[in-house]
Write a sequence for this structure.
C-alpha cells in the first residue's frame, strides 16, 4: 500500500486530525476515545498499514499535548496488537464488528494494565490488582466503543475507510 495519491494522503491526515482533536477534547473523560473505533475500523477494512500509521501519529501528536511518556509507547504497542488481531479476525457484519469493538475495549485495558504493572508496580504480581481496580474504566472504553460505532462512526464508515 502506497500513500502516493493526494486523495489518500488528505483523507489520512483528516482522519488523524479528527482523532487527535477528539482525543484531546475528550481527555477529561476516562477511556472514552473515538480514535479506538477509527484505528480498529481501518484494520477491519483490511487497511492494516493505514491503521498503524494513524495509531502512531495520533498517539504521538496527542501525546505532545497531553504529555509524552512511556505510556504513549504502551498505547502504540497495544493498538498494534489490537489492530493486528482485528485484521486477522476480519469481521464483516455489523453485529460482529460491535462485538469485536466491545472486546477490544476490554482487551485494551488488560494489555495496558499489563505494561503498567511491569513498569510502575514492580512486576506482574500486581497485575491482577490493576485489572480489578481498572475494570470500570475498561468497561467504559468497551461500551463507548460500541456506542460511538453504532450511533456515529457507522454512518461515516465508508468515508473513513475509502482511502
Amino acid at each position: 500500500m502506497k500513500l502516493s495519491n493526494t486523495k489518500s494522503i488528505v483523507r489520512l491526515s483528516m482522519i488523524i486530525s479528527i482523532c487527535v482533536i477528539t482525543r484531546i477534547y475528550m481527555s477529561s473523560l476516562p477511556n472514552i476515545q473515538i480514535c479506538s473505533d477509527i484505528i480498529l475500523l481501518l484494520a477491519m477494512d483490511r487497511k492494516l498499514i493505514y491503521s498503524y500509521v494513524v495509531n502512531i501519529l495520533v498517539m504521538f501528536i496527542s501525546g505532545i499535548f497531553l504529555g509524552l511518556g512511556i505510556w504513549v509507547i504502551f498505547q502504540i504497542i497495544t493498538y498494534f496488537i489490537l489492530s493486528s488481531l482485528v485484521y486477522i479476525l476480519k469481521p464483516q457484519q455489523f453485529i460482529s464488528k460491535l462485538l469485536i469493538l466491545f472486546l477490544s475495549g476490554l482487551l485494551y485495558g488488560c494489555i495496558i494494565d499489563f505494561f503498567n504493572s511491569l513498569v510502575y508496580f514492580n512486576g506482574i504480581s500486581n497485575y491482577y490488582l490493576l485489572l480489578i481496580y481498572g475494570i470500570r474504566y475498561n468497561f467504559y472504553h468497551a461500551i463507548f466503543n460500541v456506542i460511538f460505532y453504532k450511533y456515529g462512526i457507522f454512518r461515516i464508515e465508508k468515508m473513513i475507510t475509502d482511502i
